């Protein structure tokens, strides 16, 4: 693995300065997962580094960048819809640069479609191109031609890319990029490339910076954080639990979350680490995808329901009060009613606090795209409705069971009712309570007094 450092591109900054009478404005919108949101924050950082200001409305912008997600068809359609809606804007403002980057831009057929059918899209670059954006923009301003880069992956990690974070108290911190797992339904390994781990020293330095800047919640990101460390040099070799221990040794008032944990690599050592480290949230997002061994094998997930439940049980023994969340795919090709009953059964047995549910979406180029998929759409939506109903009942009961406790929450924003705040518990549940805005971004102690569906209600406790 090659590690590089970002360098300020003075020539690009100078060109941007010369090209516009007043500092140009950029509108950057990120779709998809936290990894992509974090990429978006770095894209903004790079743009500011070469003289752009940032704006919240596309109408005000000289540069519009959509940082896209390809994980499901619906996500892609939304992007094409939103890009389509910019046509009029471009006609009114010919100097406007419209760009598309992120995961969709790493698919050949998407670049082709943009080339053919979206002539007003000027700039396309993939997920590994953030540090090259100044040079690309400079070329674009000089040559005035479309620049649509073909998908390419670079076996390089670029450190020190400037960043404009969206929050002053919650931060995303990528520890690795890409994915090597090739679950048969999933496009991510194709668009994000092979797994690559950042060096522990680089992660630690960014982490210390965040703690020093007052960040309270730091979420470590990777498609499979449990395989962190592959490819590191021998002398700095460590696994994910070692990394957590390294970070938790940093003194300060903060908590750490991480995602995503792949069940095949989630180890007992990891669970022991959660048990031992007070900085780690007692919550585990452990996507199971489905509760049928037959389908898990077809999905290439490399674990069984039994292995998964063993892990959950071990975690419950070692970390009292730990809660779980998961991702579920309904309607994977060939899913039978019996397979689906397995999923319902597993969901009941684990008792998830939160579930992120998706109807299978066919992704061209993945193995599952060619699997026979005879189940009618209506049947899949019916299964989804049954799953959601089951989960609602479980979550409601779990939420109610929290009432009476006094907990520490991070105050994140305003609540729904006037004069209330909303905070998040260690277990990711939300609580609303009356309080002053000055508490925003701070920890507060809250007594849980009731619940409205899956949102807790509480009052400040002293
Ligand atoms: N790396 C993470 C997940 C990243 S994608 C992990 O392995 O857990 C987030 C979620 O999207 C996945 O967990 C899966 O539930 C869902 N997903 C991925 N591909 C999908 C597809 N083709 N159709 C429907 N859901 C999908
Ligand atoms: Fe996709 Fe599987 Fe990789 Fe997660 S682990 S990103 S689901 S291929
Ligand atoms: Fe989407 Fe790319 Fe994330 S496909 S889910 S934005 S890794």
UniProtKB/TrEMBL annotation:
Residues annotated as domain Radical SAM core: 165-397
Superkingdom field: Bacteria
Presence of keyword tRNA processing: yes
Limits of the TRAM domain: 400-462
Cellular compartments per GO CC: cytosol
Chain sites annotated for binding [4Fe-4S] cluster 2: 179, 183, 186
CDD domains: Radical_SAM
Coiled-coil positions: none
Catalytic activity: N(6)-dimethylallyladenosine(37) in tRNA + (sulfur carrier)-SH + AH2 + 2 S-adenosyl-L-methionine = 2-methylsulfanyl-N(6)-dimethylallyladenosine(37) in tRNA + (sulfur carrier)-H + 5'-deoxyadenosine + L-methionine + A + S-adenosyl-L-homocysteine + 2 H(+)
Cofactor comment text: Binds 2 [4Fe-4S] clusters. One cluster is coordinated with 3 cysteines and an exchangeable S-adenosyl-L-methionine.
Annotated Pfam families: Radical_SAM, TRAM, UPF0004
Any one Gene Ontology molecular-function term assigned to this protein's record: 4 iron, 4 sulfur cluster binding
Entry keyword Thylakoid: no
E.C. number(s) listed in UniProt: 2.8.4.3
Entry cofactors: [4Fe-4S] cluster
Function: Catalyzes the methylthiolation of N6-(dimethylallyl)adenosine (i(6)A), leading to the formation of 2-methylthio-N6-(dimethylallyl)adenosine (ms(2)i(6)A) at position 37 in tRNAs that read codons beginning with uridine.
HAMAP family: tRNA_metthiotr_MiaB
Protein name: tRNA-2-methylthio-N(6)-dimethylallyladenosine synthase
Species for this entry: Candidatus Faecalibacterium intestinigallinarum
């Amino acid at each position: 693995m090659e590690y590089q450092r970002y360098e300020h591109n003075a020539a690009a900054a100078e060109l941007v300065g010369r090209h516009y009478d007043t500092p140009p404005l950029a509108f950057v919108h990120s779709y998809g997962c936290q990894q992509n949101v974090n990429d978006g924050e770095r894209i903004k950082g790079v743009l500011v580094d070469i003289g752009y200001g940032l704006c919240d409305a596309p109408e005000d912008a000289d540069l519009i960048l959509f940082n896209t997600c390809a994980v499901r068809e619906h996500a892609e359609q939304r992007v094409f819809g939103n890009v389509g809606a910019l046509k009029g804007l471009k006609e009114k403002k010919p100097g406007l640069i419209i760009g598309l980057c992120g995961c969709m831009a790493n698919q050949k057929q998407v670049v082709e479609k943009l080339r053919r059918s979206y002539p007003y899209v000027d700039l396309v670059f993939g997920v590994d191109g953030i540090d090259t954006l100044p040079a690309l923009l400079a070329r674009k301003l000089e040559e005035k031609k479309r620049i649509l880069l073909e998908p390419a992956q670079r076996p390089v990690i670029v450190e020190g890319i400037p960043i404009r974070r969206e929050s002053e108290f919650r931060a995303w911190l990528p520890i690795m990029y890409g994915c090597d797992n090739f679950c048969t339904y999933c496009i991510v390994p194709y668009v994000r490339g092979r797994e690559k781990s950042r060096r522990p020293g680089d992660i630690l330095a960014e982490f210390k910076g965040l703690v020093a800047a007052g960040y309270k919640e730091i979420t470590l990101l990777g498609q499979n954080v449990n395989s962190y460390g592959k490819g590191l040099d021998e002398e700095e070799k460590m696994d994910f639990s070692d990394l957590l221990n390294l970070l938790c040794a940093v003194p300060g008032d903060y908590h750490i979350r991480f995602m995503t944990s792949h069940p095949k690599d989630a180890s007992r050592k990891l669970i022991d680490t959660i048990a031992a480290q007070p900085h780690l949230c007692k919550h585990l997002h452990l996507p199971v995808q489905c509760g049928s061994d037959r389908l898990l094998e077809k999905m290439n997930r490399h674990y069984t329901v039994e292995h998964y439940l063993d892990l959950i049980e071990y975690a419950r023994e070692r970390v009292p009060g730990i809660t779980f969340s998961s991702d579920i795919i309904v309607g994977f090709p060939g899913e039978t009613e019996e397979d689906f009953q397995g999923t319902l059964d597993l969901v009941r047995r684990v008792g998830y606090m939160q579930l992120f549910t998706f109807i299978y979406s066919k992704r061209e180029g993945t193995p599952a795209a060619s699997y026979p998929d005879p189940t009618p759409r209506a049947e899949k939506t019916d299964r989804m409705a049954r799953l959601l109903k089951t989960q609602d009942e479980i979550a409601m009961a779990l939420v109610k069971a929290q009432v009476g406790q006094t907990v520490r929450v991070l105050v994140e924003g305003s609540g729904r009712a006037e004069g209330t705040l909303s905070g998040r518990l260690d277990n990711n549940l939300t609580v609303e309570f009356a309080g002053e805005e000055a508490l925003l971004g701070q920890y507060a102690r809250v007594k849980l007094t009731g619940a409205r569906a899956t949102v807790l209600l509480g009052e400040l406790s002293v």
